[in-house]
Design the sequence.
């Protein structure tokens, strides 16, 4: 049996999950799915400028795995820009290290560890809060992973 693939670590859930070329009707567009681990590879290598070794440590994968991952992710971004497709971020065998919350009333983004019990906007006191990890399907699994590490 093949060895089960280890979960990859994403620092925080992405803020934006869907992109499309301006002026195109969404329904007609072919969709590219960028997985959350591919998103994280782009963030580390191309947004923050990390070398592959350092980025691999962040994601808890090997350097060669990271290199393959970021190449695949770049190819998807290139397709998105050149072929006029919709790009959506979802899926991937990952867990997030920290969470982010978005206030649906004022737009404020704030960090949250998984232990936080109440979600109240620190700027406008709204309780109308989107839990980003949860909106990508992550919640208890990431909490459990963190507890096991302590
Ligand atoms: Zn707010
Ligand atoms: Zn998780």
Sequence:
């Amino acid at each position: 049996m093949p060895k089960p693939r280890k979960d990859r670590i994403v620092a925080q859930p992405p803020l934006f999950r869907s992109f499309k070329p301006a002026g195109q009707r969404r329904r007609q567009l072919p969709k590219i799915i960028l997985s959350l681990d591919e998103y994280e590879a782009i963030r580390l290598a191309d947004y923050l400028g990390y070398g592959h070794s350092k980025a691999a440590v962040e994601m808890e994968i090997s350097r060669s795995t990271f290199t393959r991952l970021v190449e695949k992710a770049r190819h998807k971004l290139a397709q998105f820009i050149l072929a006029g497709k919709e790009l959506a971020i979802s899926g991937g065998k990952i867990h997030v290290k920290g969470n982010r919350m978005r206030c649906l009333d004022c737009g404020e983004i704030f960090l949250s560890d998984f232990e936080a019990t109440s979600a109240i906007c620190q700027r406008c006191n709204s309780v109308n809060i989107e839990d980003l990890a949860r909106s990508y399907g992550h919640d208890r699994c990431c909490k459990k992973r963190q507890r096991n590490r302590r």
About this structure: The mean pLDDT is 91. The two ends are 31 Å apart (CA to CA).
